[in-house]
Amino acid sequence: MLVVSINYRAFADASEEVEQNSRLTGQVQNLIDENLALQEEIHLLKTDPQIIQREARRIGIGLRPE
Questions:
Q1: CA-to-CA distance for 2 and 8, rounded, in angstroms?
Q2: pLDDT digit string, tens, across residues 12-60
Q3: Res 63 pLDDT > 70
Q4: pLDDT band, very low/low/confident/very high, at 64 (cuts 50, 70, 90)
Q5: Whole-number Cα distances in Å, 17 to 8, 20, 29, 43, 61
Q6: What would the DSSP string read from start to end of the chain?
Q7: What is the pLDDT of residue 2?
């Protein structure tokens, strides 16, 4: 009976770790996706004149078109 109890406990712990690993993997993927989107937004804010003008207007800075 003791062996069954120990084996069940080990199985339960392993199952919990697998579930936690799955959750953490999903969170990491979400953060990677968010990071990529932010990097793209930063790139556009630095290089796309239309985006720069839109954001300048949004914060109240008037820019003349080139």
A1: 10
A2: 889 999 999 999 999 999 999 999 999 999 999 999 999 999 999 999 8
A3: no
A4: low
A5: 14, 5, 18, 38, 52
A6: -HHHHHHHHHHHHHHHHHHHHHHHHHHHHHHHHHHHHHHHHHHHHHH-HHHHHHHHHHTT------
A7: 63
By CB neighbour count within 10 A (0-12 exposed, 13-18 middle, 19+ buried), where does 53 fall?
Answer: middle
Contact 43, 35 (CB under 8 A): no
The one-letter code for the residue type at 27 is: Q
pTM of the complete model? 0.65
Tokens of 13: 């712990």
Structure tokens of 43? 């790139």
Q: Which two tokens stand for residue 65?
A: 């078109």
